[in-house]
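Today's session is about reading a structure prediction critically. Students often jump straight to the picture, but the first step is always the sequence itself: look for stretches that repeat, for charged clusters, for runs of hydrophobic residues. Only then move on to the predicted structure, which in these notes is written as discrete structure tokens rather than atom positions. Here is the chain we will use throughout the hour.
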Amino acid sequence: MPPLIERNQSGQLQDIADIVANIVSEKTPATSMLRKESEPNQKKMDYQVETYPDASFDGVMDNADVDAFDSVPREEVTAVQQLYRRPWRVSRFADKTKIAGVPKGERGRQRTKALIILKFMVESRILCNADCSVDNGTDTPNRTRGAFKWLETGAQALFPVPAGYRPSSDVRYTGALSSLTEDAFRALMDEAYDMRRGESQLHGFVGTKLKKVFDYFTVRVDAGSANETYPVRTFNAQQESKKVIACVDMLEFSTGNVSLHLSSYLYRTPTTGAKTANSARSGLFLDMDMWSLAYMDAPALYDLENQGGGPRGYADCIMGSKCYNPLGQPVVDTATD
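Below is the predicted structure for this chain, in token form.
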């Protein structure tokens, strides 16, 4: 009889490691950092906005009576709540089958993952370029306005930001990334300073390609000729560490500071969640005091009745994003390198 070798063996047990590897980060910086408001009780959230107008500082004639009057007017802004939902379901056999790396069973795992994905959905909505809408009873649900649309220079289709509170085109960069030099970004900050009449303390949520542009500020600068750059900064480093460091997480200008945060959830498509050409190239530079998230209903898990096919349920929440005043907050909005 020939010897028994492994490839001819029968009855081999399957060896599956007791882990499930997921490479996707669960961090959602915008959702984590934005202020949370007390629970609203209406889907439409109205609030007021104001700014100080320019005022004449000319002299007044002696003996002149007061015959003209001024005021500081206020205007209303409207935000909308949105329902977010992530359903889950597992079959009866799937629920009872023991799975490697799933100690709590398939039902417990799918419930937990639904809540995590719900968090991604909220983050994507906050950082998108979609406008708000209200339920029309047929095919349009309530939707909250994304930050790119809040900072739009023109009037939005529904509940437009009042004209005097829309950012000017001078704080919105729409050119190719290759032309976004340090001087070009500084110009955005200068304009933001003029709008605010003071320094900006901003948080920048940026895509990977835009972050690379900022990182490159540490190395080279445009020399003024096509495709010509030269080194402008040197750094003291411990050479024994053998590290090359080219990373910018904070930009400091005379007109304000920007803390940078990488994000994978910028400018995604609401209907599919897919990235767009703008996702990696764009960025929002937000004054966190001018934003909040208002949860009508906090994120939670709900179980539905098992109607025979197996356990099922969903995670959901109701949340609306609010921009109190869009002025003085730069935007990089581009789809080209």
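Discussion point for the tutorial: The CA atoms of residues 6 and 12 lie 9 Å apart.
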